[in-house]
Every structure is written in C-alpha cells, then in structure tokens.
Write a structure and sequence with these properties.
With 357 residues, the chain is mainly alpha-helical. It contains 14 helices and no strands. The chain is globular. InterPro entries: AI-2E-like.
Amino acid sequence: MNSRESQLSERLQTGFLGVIAFGLILFLLTQARFMLICLAFAIIIFSLTSDAISAFARLKVPNWLATTLALIAIAVGLLWAATTVVSQVNEVVSTSILYADRAQAALSSLSQRWGPKVQESISTFLGSMDFAGWLRTAASQASNLISGSVLILTFVGFMFSERIWFPIKIERLTGNQARADNVLRIIYSIMRRVNRYLVVKAAISAVTAALIWVIFRATSLELAGAMATLTFILNFIPTIGSIIATVIAIVVVLAQTGDPTITIVIGGACTAVHFLIGNIFDPVLLGQTLRLSSFGIVLSLAFWGAIWGIAGTFLAVPIMVAVMIVCNHIPWLRPVAIMLSHEGLPEEEPHGLKPRG
C-alpha cells in the first residue's frame, strides 16, 4: 500500500512539475515572441540556403565564396521582400480607405432589397466595424518586417559562421559517434522535409497569385499586383490563408466598383481559383511531403496563431513537421508522432536519411 501511495505521489509531483514547465514555456514564448519568430525564420532560411551551398560545393565552388554569395542574396532578398510587402499593404490600405464610402453605399443599396430590418442590422454592423482602424493596424504591423529582416539576417550570418563546427559540437555533446549521427539524421530529416514543403508550396502559391493577377488585370481593376502579392503570402497559411485572401479580394473589388453584381462575379472567380488549387493540386503535391494530420494542422494553426499571431500561422506547419519527426525518433513519444501523422505513418523514408558531410 505504501509503495502504491509513493508511486501515486511521484506521478502527481511529475504531473504538477509538467504543468508548471508548460506554463513557463508558454510565458517565455509569449514574452520573447519577436526574437523567437525571427530566429525561427532565420533557421528556415539557413536550412534552404544550406542546401544551395552544398549544391555549389559539389560544383567545386569554394565554401567561403558560396557562403558570401548566399549572405548577400539573403540580405537583398529579405530587404526587397520586406519593402515590397510593406508597400503593397500600404497601397491596399490607402485604396481601400479611399473607396470605403463607395463600398458602404453599395452594401446599403443592396440591403434595401431585403427589407428594413435587414438594412438596419447591416447598418448597425457596419457602424460597429472600424475597417479603417483595422487596415491601419495591419499596415503598422507590416512595417515591423523591416526591423525583423535585419534581426533575421543577423541570426543567419552567425549560423553560417558556426556551420562548419555544428557536427563536431553535436558529437561532443552526445559523447558518442552513433548518437551524434542519429541526432544529425533527425535534424537533416527535418530540414529536408520542411525545405521540400516550402519549395512546393511556393510554386503552388505563385500559380495561384498569377491567376488572381490575371483576373484583376482582365477586369481592369486596380491593385492587381498588390492582390497577387498578398495571395502569394497568405497561401502559405494552410486552410484559412486562401479564405482570408478571397475575402480581401472581394472587399477590394466591392470598394473599387461599388457594384454587387460585378463583385459576385469576380469574387466567384477568385473563389474558384482558390478552391481548385487548394482542393486538387495542393493535396496531391503536398500529401507525400507533409504526411500531417489535417486536424493536427488546424490545432497547430490555432495554438501558434494564439501565441505568435500572424507569424505563428506561417510557422505552424514547419514546427509541426519538426515535432512529429523528433517524437518519431523518441520511443516514449512515438504515439504523439503517430497521432500527428496523416495515416499513422510519420516516417518519410523507410531507411532514413544519411547525414551530409
């Protein structure tokens, strides 16, 4: 009886300490969100460019030259992407505010057909919504991309400076060559699957953005480039990203035209593009790459979105891939990996991956 009570007491203490540790981790994730978000993006960029540097190394390009060129390309690319996103968001904000009165007038005229009660409800709803304030908030948040890009670039630079010594550090930390190889195998497996996901997702997002640009240009609407850029970015958010992009496109069309009929037609075309690509091409191309549970992706989006906001929704899938692979290589956490996988098969390849030299 005493042994059972002692075991129960130990389990309760362990559970209590686990709850405290989880709460402390959540607190740290929230308080250091800006630095951790930049660090996560830096790791992803470092992973992508490491593959490129390895490819150059096979072409007999000196490592220092490949690293220098990679850092220059990353700096130019980050600053260009940040300034482009900020300018496009500001353009959407300014244009939407300019045409806000026309959009509200169109909604009011449309609600008159549905009776006075519906018209009153819509008017009350529109009066309670501060669309201009939301748009200005989005623009101010987008401006943080510049400072974030500088911090990301700093992180990536130091990661490249430590790149050569990383395998040696892992070996000395583990104290065993076999364990070091296993740790490196897990890390390279995460990098390989996340890189493949990002490359395929970028191609799908580019096609979607191009089609949205064609729709806006064919109908002689403004902000074709801005809507294509926002569509490309939002498409990296699983499930809800295409919905947000479609809603923004419909609002922008209604704000420009003020015609509900044209808005329905163009909005239907944008919805069809997102639906076809998101439900046909996206699952086929990404199914074997991710092997993630759809419900798990939704939970990951909700969790990281609550912790890190919009940036968390972009990082939800890569973080989930990393968690699944790590849990798959730890025996007592393997059930977690099975639950996170799509068909209970978290393995990427039956024979694993060999560490790269």
